Amino acid sequence: MKLVPKSPNVRTPGPASLLPGAVGDFRKPVSRSRTIRIDFRNIAIAPESLMDKFVIRGGNPLVGSVRISGAKNAALPAMAAAILTDEPVILENIPDVRDIQTERNLLVSMGAEVELGYGRASHRTTISCSKLANPEAAYELVKTMRASTLVLGPLVARMGRARVSQPGGCAIGARPIDLHIKGLERLGATIKQEHGYIEASAERLRGGHIIFDKITVTGTEDLMMAATLAQGETIMENCAREPEVTDLAALLTKMGARIEGAGTHTIRIQGVEKLHGARHRIIPDRIEAGTFVTAAVLTGGDLTLTNCDPSHLGALIQKLEEAGVRIRTAPDSMRVTNGHQLIAADITTEEYPGFPTDMQAQYMTLATQAQGTSIITENIFENRFMHAHELVRMGANIKVEGRRAIVRGKTPLSSAAVQCSDLRASASLVIAALVADGETIIDRVYHVDRGYERIEEKLKGVGAQIRRIGEILPKRATAPSVVA
Ligand code: EPZ
């Protein structure tokens, strides 16, 4: 993939100039050779990478060690949180995936300065929102990534106004953001919806009492961010308890916010006048870890995952053990060894700490290789079985009935040409191809690139036969190449 900077703007900043008035340990000098400032407004994502495919020859056990990246779903709200202050926010362990690039483009389109680390600091980004001029999230960006709506609350809280495109439909469900809007209204914002945009304004938000009709992850994050600068106290009930919510609260607290109860169903936020800069390391990606564990189990490998947090994967580990898998865990690593006779086990997706919906597709592939019938119930999204039809093309025995899928196993999988429909469906097809007989061609892998960092290189590193074929360039460049 090639990013084409139309007019690169490169300058190596001095350490002091980046951090006026900042507090805490992130004053550690940033070495001159580490950061570059790039003008993202002139960078386009090359269309040819949208044509990439994976070619995977199945049958190789995954053996060795894989380093898990930072969590996309923790990094996205953390980047939006930088809007809440005019001081720099330094985020580490940021995954190098397409959704993060989209978020960077979004922030820069508003007037933020975004610096990318490279070399040893390549997973660090520094965001400065001291010159935000255009509090708008345009349709072009929002349509490629719904999580762009996470800027709504922070913009209203900091700038007093925001214009954010309605996200529109999604492959896995309607996914409205009505609860974000209702919550902002309870904090005193005036909301207008017209021409496909949400226009929100408030001189200053005021604390309020929000009871979510439904548990929503980004809804909880969006309103928690908004409430940090509101006048008075906000109490939010029926909140999401995902680790990504807790991680965001940890960052906001480092920025000077006063938050209690993150990780529980009730969060209290005492609004403050102003927030300041901070440095924060993003938590590991539990869904990437779960994806590699599932692949290791099915390929009969011996795989160690490093830089992960098994405590975030309780429901998955328990379910895999029920299915006959042995997993050894340590505080920041997991090991899956081979020799499992998989037995069928039902799953029902739930909000955290229940079985994650983002692991449902990968688990379905596993169920096709288990002895017996597994019933998979999808409780979170109304249309999250697109992968089932592609797995059936590879020989699986799956029947979808509304929000339930009945998987009969074990059925041998054979290679076929299949296509991705969304991020996690893509992961289930990659895993299926790793165990299928023959060479599978997976189309539209740009879905995978949205949330998995260099998955083909990580898989190749532990013995998988996988290659990416694209229209033009063989090697995928993630960070923008600097044509100094
Ligand atoms: C987050 O999406 C994740 N995305 C999703 O991961 C994940 O699948 C989902 O939470 C559930 O765990 C990010 O964190 C960026 P929700 P989110 O609001 O916040 C309904 C991936 O693969 N709802 O918790 O958008 C909604 O339709 C992605 O990485 C409303 O009705 O999900 C759904 O049925 C996919 N109104 C349910 O609530 C609202 O205002 C839960 O959605 C908001 C949500």
List keywords for this structure.
disordered N terminus, four-stranded mixed sheet, single chain, 15 helices, alpha+beta, five-stranded mixed sheet, 27% helix, binds ligand EPZ, 484 residues
Plain-language structure description:
With 484 residues, the chain is α+β, with helices and mostly antiparallel strands. The strands form seven sheets. The chain has a five-stranded mixed beta sheet with strand order 2-7-8-6-17. Strands 25-26-4-27 form a four-stranded mixed beta sheet. A four-stranded mixed beta sheet has the order 5-18-20-19, with helices on one face. Helix 7 packs parallel to helix 8 (243-254) and helix 11 runs parallel beside helix 13 (423-435). The longest helix has 14 residues, at 286-299. 50% of the residues are buried. The structure holds ligand EPZ. Ligand EPZ binds at residues 73, 76, 147, 173-180, 214, 216-219, 240, 244, 357-358, 380-381, 423-424, 451. Ligand EPZ binds next to helix 2, helix 6, helix 7 and helix 13.
Radius of gyration using CA atoms only:
22 Å
Structural class: alpha+beta
Number of strands: 27
Give the biggest sheet.
5 strands, mixed
What's the helix count?
Answer: 15
The helix fraction, in percent, is: 25-40%
Distinct small molecules: ligand EPZ
- Give the terminus-to-terminus CA distance: 19 Å
**Molecular shape:** globular
